[in-house]
Amino acid sequence: MFTFHQMKHIFEILDKMRCLRKRSAVSFLGVLVIFLLFMNLYMEDTYVLERDKQLLRETSSHQLNPERYVHKFKDLSNFSGVINVTYRYLAVTPLQRKRYLTIGLSSVKRKKGNYLLETIKSIFEQSSYEELKEISVVVSLSDFNSSWREAMIQEITKKFAHHVIAGRLMVIHAPEEYYPTLDGLKRNYNDPEDRVKFRSKQNVDYAFLLNFCANTSDYYLMLEDDVRCSKNFLSAIRKVITSLEGTYWVTLEFSKLGYIGKLYHSHDLPRLAHFLLMFYQEMPCDWLMPYFRTLLAQKNVIRFKPSLFQHMGYYSSYKGFDNKLKDDDFEEESLDIPDNPPAKLYTNMNVFENYDASKAYSGADEYFWGKPPTTGNIFLIVFENPIIISKIKVTTGTVDRQNEILHHGVLDVGEEAMASKIGKQCVTYLRLGAFKNGNFEMADVNQKVPFNIHCIRIHVTKTQKEWLIIRSISIWTS
């Protein structure tokens, strides 16, 4: 694995590569990844596998092609170890057991306003007693001003002493001597020097926070220090994770703003920490994140609605500038997020490009899109196991394409799925009702259906000339 001094040496070498500045950010980042991996090949690092060394030899003379090499990036074991940092424990009670979710916050002194205490308060107040058993909150006071840190730790321990004692709240600090140089950095995007220093330090702040949290839980959630939480956000996140069981993902997004509400597997945190340190001076952290996701083979953003976290600050931590951005998808109550149990989806409609059937069921900000359906076309959901359903909601069309709805269709439910040419499907169905204005919604389904449901079928009853968007299919179980 890279030591701090090796990393620092590499950054100094990269600073001399002036010609690379003329390239675009995307191509530059690709070349940079290859260069760093190539350099590591010649370091006597016992953690680098022989097959990875061969890969580096092959790629050293080529532009990085994410689709070709992305699966190898996941296997590079020299990215999987923690960074050697000796943290200062400002308020910590050792964890008695691994939790389900760790929530990370990094905070620095602001010229205007301070929202950290309100953010911590919101996390705990919006969680039930049972949810509190499954979370830990790690706050990194990342400012080098010791007087500010001392004042903040007094405030935190005064207001949240019982959470510290219970091991739900830990406050740490990474000393300045572990940071790489923050002066004389490259001024990408023509940012002023102090702005470059601020965003570069923030990348390192987050890297050290991620590094600390690597083994504290199964999942990790990144928040900023000026955030309000939706009620029972943990239960909503757990629902989403359960619905994605068996599918591959790197980052799930529960807010569309900044570095708020981004969820990771904890086993990815060491690599993410190394990644932020590698490119700490290149661009802001929220611009770097898509590259990390892509390198680990998640091509598309997976963002869920409603958003579970809202930006509440009015002043930025950078120079106290105004920052009144709000997430218009945020909802205070999050418990109405559907369960969407694991299922297979089929359709005999003509699918447009990659807008396949599964995208209507994922819960993410995406949809199914098909060419004009004809009489008899179906859209079928077959659950892995029969379930009891309390509510079904299907929405078609979008705000931009309001006429691409299902104009004529019905929804049926079936029992006892059996094997067929297209996979499992039910033989007998019970009709629940017709679509109205492109939508179908029914509550108390379990009181109207006398069996456990194995299939849901959307049936087109009349050919239409308009294309069809199925924006979302939501299932609530009893």
UniProtKB/TrEMBL annotation:
Lineage top rank: taxon: Eukaryota
Residue ranges of domain MGAT4 A/B/C C-terminal in the record: 343-471
InterPro entries reported for this sequence: Glyco_transf_54, MGAT4, MGAT4_A/B/C_C, Nucleotide-diphossugar_trans
Entry keywords, A to Z: Glycosyltransferase, Membrane, Transferase, Transmembrane, Transmembrane helix
Transmembrane regions: 25-43
Residue ranges of every copy of the MGAT4 conserved region domain listed in the record: 68-330
Pfam families tied to this protein: MGAT4_cons, MGAT4A_C
Pathway participation: Protein modification; protein glycosylation
Protein name: Alpha-1,3-mannosyl-glycoprotein 4-beta-N-acetylglucosaminyltransferase C
Gene, per the UniProt record: MGAT4C
